[in-house]
């Protein structure tokens, strides 16, 4: 699927806010460490992706009950669900001048029940003519997401026959409903995930 930026203004995909807080020292320090040994934006982006995918466990997999939503908190606490990990990766990319934004999928259980919104990111490397989606959710048996810019290697290819879908827009800021569900949750097991994008439900 070809990601579509919600705005042609690339500066929107480099901005910092309360969630994508790449001005925070934790984000800056993590980015500096990841940049060591890399020689260009592509190598740094791959290192950042693999760090968030592998070094920050997904809360549902690890059983960690803490809820993180701000990028700096995700990196400091090393935990988060897909949304939080996407916020962290977006912040790490933006901190090194790589435009990045948030993307979403609607996923279900194997029988089509239990729809939930899943979070991932898209980035545009310098010189690239297109956006590429990446999913740093974290691998496990049956999930094998990779850093791949030409052919998508996402955690969950959608199954349209079950009502799943990819949403093409690349958002410059996290969806308010996503941030709200994280901030309101008493624990990671108590997060009430949105079921679809509001405008496409």
TrEMBL record:
This is Transglutaminase-like superfamily protein. Residues 33-136 form the Transglutaminase-like domain. SUPFAM superfamilies: Cysteine proteinases. InterPro entries: Papain-like_cys_pep_sf (IPR038765), Transglutaminase-like (IPR002931).
